[in-house]
Amino acid sequence: MESLIHLYKIGHGPSSSHTMGPETACNYILDNYSNVHKIIATLYGSLALTGKGHLTDRIIYQTLKSLNVEIKFNFDQITTHPNTMVFDLFDFNGNLLDSLKFFSVGGGDVILDGSNKKIIKKDVYPFKSFDEIKEFCKKEKISLCELVYKFEGTDIKKHLEKVYETMESSISNGLTKDGELPGGLHVLRKAAQLYNSIELQESSDIKELRLVSSYAFAVSEENASGGKIVTAPTCGACGVLPASIFYLKQKNNLNKEKIIDAIAVAGIIGNVIKTNASISGAFAGCQSEIGSACSMAAAAIAYLKDESVEEIEYAAEIALEHHLGLTCDPINGLVQIPCIERNAVAALRAIDAANLAKFLKGTRKISFDTVVKTMYETGKDLSHEYKETSIGGLAKNYKKEG
Ligand code: SF4
């Protein structure tokens, strides 16, 4: 398993696989080729079908602004990976210098095709499954966050601190804005409205639901408008973890150190999913984005409530299990409907999952590894239409109504 630095990336939305991944590919070209004059970038699969809404073209033009760039959208050709992009590089005389095929595999990561061209990241954890991690923690008598610091070194805390600070800023920024989100769908920002309605509520339960939702909306609306967020584990699902941990921090007056530890715990869950399944909606549907985010958040909450590794696993398992089969069908290819509300619903679900795990302590029948494997298989079986193509589900029916 890789470092949590690769899971939690700080950057601009709206999509880790459709903006951050292509940006990484473009930067790879800039770093490795000096005599390029023109580039033809061809986008395939989900990158072609939702690239405009997800601002893929904008980030490519922006990153390669010093070069002559042409972007083509190939809607028809089926490629081995649903997020494929090919960059043909030409010199000043029009000679083809190289043709690079990248796969944007989720969370902003890319793989360069070809045996000698893989962008390889070093594994820092000698584990593949949650069972292995749990066994190690039990043997060494350490917690999940101590495992992170043991294998990553305490320097990772600095990154996680920045991660938390960015999460907090995205909440405060999102809560102060109103008006329409960009993209032409005329979706209004609702975070501030939710937040400001809290004091009018009499029931403390409703107040809490509104508060968590307002935080999730704030971050997701920041993402939808290209604001600065953290992939947790992706841009589309970036509101779930911040909303739940910020809510608990405020409610229980938790210190920053404890919150950073909780982000480390959530990172282990995200990493196990990323290693054994996928965190890409284009590969496995929204269960792999929002489902993974909910699972990470449930683990973080269980940790913040001082639960054991067993109950942290139970909370993460419940959260992912009840997102199995969730499709990705963003309307007009924008990360707005269903994405923004879905972040709020998942943040609330993460709290429920952690509470249920506490209540049902010791009765778990399904391991976290089993549910991750099931999510992966379900994702492979999901119809192509439901994997970030905007040609199925809500995206299709909305067009009919509209
Ligand atoms: S529906 Fe889910 S997976 Fe698809 S873009 Fe929205 S948040 Fe991401």
Helices, by number, come to 16
Please estimate the helix content: 40-55%
- With strands numbered from the N-terminus, the spatial order across the biggest sheet is 3-2-4-5-6
Total domain units: 2
Distance between the termini: 45 Å
Q: Which ions, cofactors or small ligands are bound in this entry? A: iron/sulfur cluster
Largest sheet: 5 strands, mixed
Rounded Rg: 21 Å
Structural class: alpha+beta
Mean pLDDT: 94
> How many extended strands?
7
- Spans of 5+ residues with little confidence (pLDDT < 50)? none
What sequence of helices (H) and strands (E) makes up the elements? EHEHHEEEEHHHHHEHHHHHHHH
Per DSSP, what share of the residues sits in E-state strands of 2 or more residues? 5-15%
Give an account of the 3D structure.
The chain is built from 16 helices and seven strands. It folds into two domains: 12-112, 2-Layer Sandwich (60s Ribosomal Protein L30, Chain: A); 130-401, no CATH class. The model has no long low-confidence stretch (mean pLDDT 94). By secondary structure, the protein is of the alpha+beta class. The relative contact order is 0.14. The chain binds iron/sulfur cluster. Residues 236-237, 281, 286, 289-290, 328, 330, 335, 338-339, 342, 388 line the site of iron/sulfur cluster.
